[in-house]
Write a structure and sequence with these properties.
Layout: E1 2-4, H1 19-32, E2 41-45, H2 46-52, E3 63-67, E4 88-96, E5 99-106
Parallel strand pairs: 1-2, 2-3, 3-4
Antiparallel strand pairs: 4-5
């Protein structure tokens, strides 16, 4: 399960993320799915995490899928969140035959 934590883009009806909303959502999701044994992932970017959420570190036990269009300079351990590393990184978007797709890397 992936918790998508991003700033609104003008068309979102969900509002700006907050630490309380993210925490409540993670706790509720974990409780409904049988506790923290569930494989959760947080998808976010540096600006949202640092500027909007205040750089919390209490979720670093959850895998990180980082939107880092500027590359690894935006990735832990250089920047944020208490994570020692990322699990997945979206580093770009490509278009092939008119279809856009994310460019992602797995960090194993």
């Amino acid at each position: 399960m992936v918790v998508d934590v991003e700033e609104p883009n003008g068309t979102s009806s969900t509002g700006t993320p907050s630490k309380t909303v993210v925490n409540d959502f993670i706790n509720e999701l974990s409780n409904k799915l049988g506790g923290f044994q569930v494989n959760l992932v947080i998808y976010t970017n540096k600006d949202t995490w640092v500027k909007l959420l205040g750089n919390p570190t209490n979720w670093s036990y959850i895998a990180l899928w980082l939107s880092a269009m500027d590359g690894e300079s935006y990735c832990p351990p250089h920047t944020f969140g208490g994570w020692v590393n990322w699990s997945y990184m979206q580093y770009g978007i490509a278009t092939l035959d008119g279809v856009s797709t994310d460019l992602d890397e797995l960090n194993v």
